[in-house]
Structures are given as structure tokens and as C-alpha cells.
């Protein structure tokens, strides 16, 4: 029997209760395995939530969640764009190892390989109902001549309001460009974020009697930004409001979209309360890559989506888990989104026997105690490009070790070195004054590339960095 067949058999009822390979799980001490709701916002920058210091946007439900749980200050995305983040989320691997290091185009031949064991398959192996709502972006699309590998091919029992063709910029009103087959369910002009919120609530209601894993993957706040008109008007009237969809700060459309996401978080929390499931449910909110800095500001972090500066890869991460995560805590240990896979394995107390090597580390010790130490020296990024991203990102790799971070630009061969504790905005390049440190980090980065088989194709070294595509 192949791996997938084995997992399906397990899902059909064969117990899989062996010791977790990454430490004792949440099932210890008689504790029931929790339900998991994982809410992901698209292109949401580090500095957009009230609980991360934003004073213009209004995110009362997420701020409450942070007060009830743990806020991570140094949570990273494994990539500065969509698809590689999602590949790392689903497999626990570095994107470089999966071989998906850039966003997948609609006609892309690449996709998350069916033989990879996904997060959804891990939950299925533990007897969970698995559901996904919204953005997948781990395949090319049939409509564009590519082979589609759908979420339902990767361990999700159901995938609703999910794209079947190229993801449309600004397709936030029904009928949705990315999947015209989606029938309207809300009265009036249906707004996509509202629809995703409704589907999330109804999934919880449908599956209240069994353990569930729900992945709520919003299409917002990806450009083109389109907020609901009443909310946009509310933010336009606020002091300091930027103007229009392309405002670079205090963007009223982004704020409006984010408020609707936040409303959905409130709906999910209320539904869990009503169903009596709040204490048995681990609730996670995060984003897939940094904010696009032509429509927002990630300050105090530098730059945004498509770059390996902090603004491109550092994300909000809020976790609520009653009885395990202490309310109102903050964790400053660097984490990366490949960590979710082994973390859930540890929480479920299963060894998934994934066919792929898992690069992440379980952060369950941090959930129990934010000052716990993880067994990991460094985080790595690999983002080779044949020409600069249209948002400005360059072909590059990076490493963070302790408070030090090095970015190696593949197009010029230059390196930049920053001390993040002293200089979170990456304003002072120390590569020339600390060549010893720069050399150590560069060597560690090169050694990691070798270990995971990360390639830098020749055309990703040799192009004109000034030329935009
Ligand atoms: Ca994204």
C-alpha cells in the first residue's frame, strides 16, 4: 500500500496512536485532541492589526484573540509570495526542497506533488474532518491548460469557494472571476470575504460533533483592493486616511477588507462559543507574506511582499488555545510557517510518516511556555528569480541566526548584513564592518542550500537588477 492509501485507511478508522516523533503531544494528561481552525489572510503585512500597533485599522476581534492567547513578534513566512508559503504550510518543508519558490502562474506545470503528505492528510490520519475555504494556489489551472491538483486531491474532504482558474485581481464581488461556478448564497451583492466567513461558520456547525481541521484561506487583502463601500466610506472619513485603492498608508480599502476579515474572526469565535467548542479548539490567525508596499506600509519593517527584507516575510501570528496557551502572552522566538506541520503532529500525538523530510520544528513548547527554547539555529529563505518581481523583489537568499540576518543577492553577488535587535528596520548594512559575521552567515546559507538541494539557475544570477518586468 502506498503512503496515501495508508493514510486513507487510517482515516477510515484504523487507530494511529504512536508517540509523536517531535515530543509529547496535546493528547497527554488525558487532554482531548483539539479542533483546529487556521485562518490565513493573503498579503497581510506585519503592522496592520491593532494588536501589532496599528492605530488606523480596526481589528477588535483579532485584538481580543491576542488578549486571550499568544502573539508572536517574530513569526516568519517561508517565502515573500503566495505559493511557496502555502507549499511550506502544507508539507512542513522549505519551499526550496518542494521546488516551489515563486508564485505559480495560472498555466504553471508545477504543483504541489500528490505524493507529498499534507497537513490535511495528517489530520485525516488522526480521524479529523478536514475542510478548506478559499485560496489554494498550489497548482496551475485546467482552464489555462495546466494539470490541476486540487485541495480535495491533497487530503481535504471539502474545498469551497476555491479558485478553478487564475486568481483574479480584485474579484471580490459575485460572480467571482476565479470560479464562476460558485453560486451566490448571500442576499444582495455578495462580497467574497463575507461569503468565506459564512462558509466558515457553517462548516463549524456541520462538523460540531466530530474533531475537525478547518483552513480558512482568505483572498483578501490581495490587490486589487476592494472594500465594501460603507466600510470604505467609514475609513475615508477617519483622520489621516489615505486616498483610494492605491493609498500607500492608511489605505481605506485595505482597512475595510481587513475589518470584514476581523468580523469573520468574531463570527467564528461566537459560533465556537454557541456550540460549546471554544475550550476544545485551537484557533490560529496569520498571513502568508508581507504587505504590498505600494498599497500599505509595513513600517517599522523595511519594504514588503516580494523582498526578503523583514517587511516581505515577517507576519502577524496570533494563537488562542484555552487551557494551554496563557492569555495575553507574547513570544519573541523566531518561528516559520513550516513549523505548523510538525506542531500539529505533536499536538495530535501522531507520527504521520510523511514521505518528505519535515524541515519545521514543533512550536508546541512555545505555546506552553513562550520562553521555551527550540532546537534550531537558523531560518533560511531561497527566492531565485529570472528577473525582478514587478513589486521590486530581487533574486536572493537569506538567513536569520539569532539577531543577525544576512541577505545574499544572486543578481549582483552582494550581501547585506543586519542586526535585527538593534535595527529592526534594516537601515544599517553591517556587511563591510562585520565581514567575519557576514562570512559565517553566508557559509551557513550556502551549506543549507546544499543540504536541501536549493538551486540557483544561471538566469537567476545573470540579469539586470534595474530592469523591471
Ligand atoms: Ca500572498
Short description:
This protein has 12 helices and 13 strands. The chain has helices spanning 3-11, 60-68, 82-91, 95-98, 119-125, 192-206, 229-236, 252-274, 310-313, 340-348, 364-368, 435-452, and strands spanning 35-41, 70-76, 129-134, 158-160, 212-217, 281-287, 314-320, 329-331, 335-336, 378-383, 396-401, 404-409, 415-419. The chain is globular and about 60 Å long.
Helix-and-strand structural type: alpha/beta
Percent range of helical residues: 25-40%
Low-confidence stretches: 1-30
pLDDT average, as an integer? 93
Strand content: 15-25%
Count of DSSP E strands? Answer: 13
* Largest beta-sheet characterization: 9 strands, mixed
Rg, alpha carbons: 21 Å
Explained architecture:
The chain is an alpha/beta fold. Strands 1, 2, 3, 4, 5, 6, 7, 8 and 9 form a nine-stranded mixed beta sheet that branches. A four-stranded antiparallel beta sheet has the order 10-11-12-13, with helices on one face. The protein is 26% helix and 15% strand. It is built from twelve helices and 13 strands. Mean pLDDT is 93; it is low at 1-30. The structure holds calcium ion. Calcium ion binds at residues 42-43, 82, 222, 288-289.
Amino acid at each position: 500500500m502506498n503512503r496515501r492509501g495508508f493514510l486513507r485507511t487510517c482515516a477510515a478508522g484504523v487507530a494511529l496512536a504512536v508517540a509523536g516523533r517531535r515530543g509529547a503531544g496535546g493528547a497527554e494528561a488525558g487532554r482531548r485532541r483539539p479542533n483546529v481552525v487556521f485562518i490565513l489572510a493573503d498579503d497581510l503585512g506585519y503592522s496592520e492589526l491593532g494588536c501589532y500597533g496599528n492605530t488606523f485599522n480596526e481589528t477588535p476581534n483579532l485584538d481580543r484573540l491576542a488578549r486571550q492567547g499568544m502573539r508572536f513578534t517574530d513569526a516568519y513566512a517561508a517565502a515573500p509570495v503566495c505559493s511557496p508559503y502555502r507549499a511550506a504550510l502544507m508539507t512542513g518543508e522549505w519551499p526550496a526542497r518542494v521546488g516551489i519558490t515563486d508564485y505559480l502562474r495560472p498555466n504553471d506545470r508545477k504543483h504541489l506533488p500528490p505524493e507529498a503528505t499534507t497537513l490535511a492528510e495528517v489530520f485525516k490520519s488522526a480521524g479529523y474532518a478536514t475542510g478548506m475555504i478559499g485560496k489554494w494556489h498550489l497548482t496551475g489551472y485546467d482552464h489555462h491548460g495546466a494539470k490541476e491538483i486540487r485541495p480535495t486531491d491533497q487530503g481535504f474532504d471539502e474545498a469551497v469557494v476555491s479558485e478553478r482558474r487564475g486568481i483574479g485581481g480584485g474579484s471580490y464581488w459575485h460572480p467571482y472571476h476565479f470560479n464562476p461556478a460558485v453560486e451566490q448564497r448571500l442576499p444582495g451583492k455578495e462580497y467574497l470575504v463575507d461569503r468565506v466567513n459564512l462558509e466558515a461558520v457553517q462548516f463549524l456547525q456541520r462538523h460540531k460533533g466530530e474533531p475537525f481541521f478547518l483552513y480558512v484561506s482568505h483572498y483578501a487583502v490581495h490587490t486589487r483592493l476592494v472594500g465594501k463601500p460603507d466600510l470604505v466610506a467609514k475609513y475615508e472619513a477617519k483622520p489621516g486616511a489615505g486616498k483610494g485603492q492605491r493609498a500607500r498608508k492608511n489605505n481605506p480599502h485595505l482597512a475595510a477588507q481587513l475589518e470584514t476579515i476581523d468580523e469573520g474572526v468574531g463570527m467564528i469565535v461566537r459560533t465556537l462559543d454557541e456550540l460549546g467548542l471554544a475550550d476544545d479548539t485551537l484557533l490560529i490567525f496569520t498571513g502568508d507574506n508581507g504587505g504590498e508596499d505600494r498599497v500599505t506600509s509595513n513600517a517599522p519593517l523595511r519594504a514588503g511582499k516580494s523582498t526578503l527584507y523583514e517587511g516581505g516575510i515577517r507576519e502577524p501570528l496570533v494563537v488562542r488555545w484555552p487551557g494551554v496557551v496563557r492569555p495575553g502572552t507574547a513570544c519573541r522566538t523566531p518561528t516559520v510557517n513550516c513549523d505548523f506541520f510538525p506542531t500539529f503532529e505533536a499536538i495530535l500525538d501522531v507520527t504521520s510518516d510523511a514521505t518528505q523530510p519535515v524541515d519545521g520544528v514543533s512550536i508546541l513548547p512555545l505555546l506552553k511556555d513562550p520562553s521555551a527554547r527550540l532546537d534550531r539555529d537558523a531560518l533560511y529563505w531561497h527566492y531565485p528569480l529570472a528577473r525582478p518581481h514587478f513589486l521590486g523583489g530581487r533574486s536572493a537568499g537569506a538567513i536569520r541566526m539569532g539577531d543577525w540576518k544576512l541577505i545574499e543577492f544572486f543578481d549582483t553577488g552582494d550581501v547585506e548584513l543586519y542586526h535585527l535587535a538593534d535595527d529592526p528596520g534594516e537601515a544599517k548594512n553591517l556587511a563591510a564592518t562585520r565581514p567575519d559575521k557576514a562570512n559565517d552567515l553566508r557559509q551557513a546559507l550556502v551549506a543549507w542550500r546544499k543540504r536541501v538541494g536549493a538551486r540557483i539557475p544561471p538566469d537567476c544570477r545573470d540579469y539586470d537588477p534595474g530592469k523591471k518586468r
